[in-house]
Amino acid sequence: MLALGLMSGTSMDGIDAALLETDGERVGAFGAALTLPYPDGFRAALRGVLGGVGDVAGVEAELTRLHAEAVRHLLRQANHPKVDVIGFHGHTILHRPDQRRTWQIGDGAALARALGIPVVNDFRSMDVAGGGQGAPLVPVFHRALAEALPRPLAVLNLGGVGNVTWIGEGGHLVAFDTGPANAPIDDWLARHTGQAADFDGRLARGGTADTQAVNRFAEHPYFKITPPKSLDRDDFAALLADLTAAMSPTDGAATLTACAARAVSLAARHFPAPAGRWLVCGGGRHNPALMAALSMELTVPVEPVEGVGWNGDALEAQAFAFLAVRSLRGLELTYRETTGGPAPSRGGRFHAGVLANHRTGG
User: Does residue 229 sit in the same domain as residue 171?
Assistant: First the structure.
């Protein structure tokens, strides 16, 4: 099937969209991909509904409209292929699996009506309702991509929150959130410089990390919890704000960057066997200060996923294209080793497209 995946991550920088040919078990071919940045005003509005407060309905409607715009842009770029299904993650505004609650805004039915293409959304709810963490969802896609690579292998996604997939012999998976990654760095930059992110790691490279603050961060109970486990974007916000309260903008950026890298090294302690290689995707791989900090923390090769021919900017969007097809085929999206649910779980909610000029798929 030709699937189109859409992802709006915790960094809130925009929408990633990507085409993928897949049967939900193997990857046939990669297609076009793009990122549509959020307008500054909408990014602020989206930040304002985190936690499920404020004008959620209004933000959800605009988020859905922007995703439809991203799809149209991508289809024009790809010369208007006939897409079988869209995998629409939406945007997480609340994630409390301990309360069996997770909330991704984005109206799947409205998106299907607007585009005339079937849509699968709401990928996490079934796993969370069954007692799982509902995250991360991408490990089955990482395993499909890494079919020919030596194992054990770690695939690290550095978004607002970091998550890792460990892939062992026989395709055995372990996956969980490592800890805060780009989100606290982005928030620090927004507060101190008005910039959306530490582009090229410039601010962090101009400062000095506070080693004692990083060590206190590493004592957080989260790092001792046996995975699977997951985080909300702001779970560490209060601790990190306290640790960096008296720091200069540059030292604060350096310290938060060091904390993100330390979280990854602490995550590696939970692997069944050491990973011989780390492949990094997500926006964090573009930050040389963060990548340098990772290389210092880990003792094996750490490199962007482009080193094995993957597109790190499109990977999560491609994953939701893959997951949409798995959902249509009734295949599991999550496992006990990836989200902690008591049993493998299917997921996704299907919305039929209404225009006749597209195949219905599935």
Answer: yes
